[in-house]
Design goal:
Elements lengths: L19 H16 L2 E9 L1 H18 L5 H12 L8 E4 L4 E4 L5 E3 L1 E3 L2 E3 L2 E2 L7 H16 L5 H4 L4 E4 L19 E5 L3 E7 L6 E15 L5 H16 L16
Parallel strand pairs: 4-8, 8-9
Antiparallel strand pairs: 1-11, 2-3, 4-7, 5-6, 9-11, 10-11
Helix pairs in contact: 3-4, 3-6
Length: about 260
Amino acid sequence: MDLIAETTPDEDVQVEKLSRVRKVIAARMHQSLQGSAQLTSVVEADFGPIMAARAAHGERFRAVHGVSLSPLAVVAAAVCRALPEHRMLNATIDTDAGTASYHRRINLGFAVDTEAGLMVPNLKDAGTLSVAGLAQGIAGVAGRARARKLRPDDIMDGTFTITNTGSRGSLLDTPILNAPETGILAVGKAERRPVVVGTGEAERVEIRDMAYLCLTYDHRLVDGADAARFLTALKDGLESRPIAAADLELEPGDE
């Protein structure tokens, strides 16, 4: 940022001009809030299967695929599985025209923290990618964003966005939509904490790896029940079964 030549009377205050990127971010965030009806719904998910897979296969995953097995890639895969059944969250709305456009492709955006400011490149046809493909793709677009080497195609035509606020220690967030998209998911930090599991006589307290999944949605097209159904499907998809080596494209000899 460039310093403004005129100093303020208060010597304890340093006034700086906003960078071009920060001006664009500020304008887009304001436009998003002004142009849509945004609400956030939250569920808590057990990341135990993800953490178990990282412990069992993480080292070999990096050796085979060249990237780490991050929870973000596994969540992204679950998002891609859930979105086709919840098309209102992979859509854009034009209230002036009275239309909604439902996208068959999932161009999954990822919020990237860079020195210049927040960038949101997206992976085209993310629904066709495996966990390994998503992990490699996320690393690729994030690397280009931080190196200021994004291509125009990297930031065009996104349909849904994920922001991994947990990577910076945040437990829960209420993200702003990446307009004109109708949904954005914030993934909070996974923390080990006691939770009640089981029912009836089988009810007990266990230590689990828990994380909040926070969905901001455009209420002009997405109802609260729609958001809850999507989050429930996403939570169930992450918790329902262990992640095997085959899911990570690791051959038996790779384990």
